[in-house]
Design goal:
Strand order of the largest sheet: 4-3-2-6-7
Strand content: 35-45%
Largest sheet: 5 strands, mixed
Mean pLDDT: 86
CATH architecture of the largest domain: Sandwich
Distance between the termini: 43 Å
CATH class of the largest domain: Mainly Beta
Low-confidence stretches: 5-19, 170-178
Length: 253
């Protein structure tokens, strides 16, 4: 990589992190059900992000065409932002003929492609199967350098909800040839190793973001923890990266 380009990219990433603009990926999953309308099981649905002040950030999913005006909460949010029914980068499609599991993602940016500041955000979901407002709910999460997984209680028209934020903390140099980072075995029965050049520290958090382990040695022991997903932050002399590890007992394989 050209030295000047490398320096420029490194500065951009460093500036974003130091000012609290952590890049990452949010995955939202929910299973839909009827709102009790006369068009059921046909339905229209939207999922979008707002900040803690209620300002529209980005639409993640919008299955709605000519009847999208009946998604009144989504319409109001996007209209207030000056761009009614904005679907930049969103998953889009026509009215759904039946219910099912809907999955969408967010890369932490707004409609202009700018990484938004770290802080509290809300995932909004709205569904209707009639020519009127249906059901809508919102779920709060924190976007920052900590990985999280939230599983809210079921709400009208949305069940089995999962909201997962995975920060991307890898520096430009971490992606260069020769700087290999590995976590193995994965899945693990409880113990695993971290292999990385210039390893300084390892942090392990559970799906809720709680810090369980912080150590300098590469051998990690999760034997006393329940099965599930864990997030391993590997801090090296060249930067840091977060890896997802699955702890799975032998009986569940």
């Amino acid at each position: 990589m050209n030295k000047s380009l490398f320096t420029f990219l490194s500065l951009m990433i460093f500036t974003a992190l130091i000012h609290g603009q952590t890049p990452g990926n949010l995955t939202v999953t929910a299973t839909t059900s009827t709102a009790g309308g006369n068009y059921a099981p046909k339905n229209i649905v939207a999922i979008w992000i707002e900040d803690d002040q209620g300002n529209f950030v980005k639409t993640l999913l919008a299955y709605a065409a000519t009847r999208k005006t009946h998604l009144n909460t989504w319409e109001a949010s996007t209209t207030a932002a000056g761009s009614p029914f904005n679907v930049v980068d969103a998953i889009t499609g026509a009215t759904r003929s039946s219910h099912g599991t809907r999955t969408c993602t967010w890369n932490g940016t707004d409609v202009n492609g700018t990484v938004v500041p770290d802080g509290i955000y809300k995932v909004w979901m709205e569904l209707t199967d009639k020519n009127a407002t249906g059901n809508f709910s919102s779920f709060e999460f924190t976007k920052d350098t900590n990985a999280i997984n939230i599983t809210p209680f079921n709400v009208p028209s949305f069940a089995s909800i999962s909201i997962t934020w995975e920060p991307v903390l890898t520096s430009v140099e971490d992606q260069s040839p020769g700087n290999f980072i590995r976590v193995f075995p994965n899945p693990t029965l409880g113990t695993f190793m971290v292999k990385a050049e210039k390893l300084e520290r390892v942090q392990v958090r559970n799906a809720t973001g709680a810090l369980l382990i912080e150590q300098e040695s590469p051998g990690i022991d999760l034997a006393g923890q329940p099965d599930g997903i864990y997030y391993v932050k590997i801090i090296t002399g060249r930067g840091s990266v977060v890896k997802k590890v699955l702890k799975q007992s032998k009986s569940s394989r």
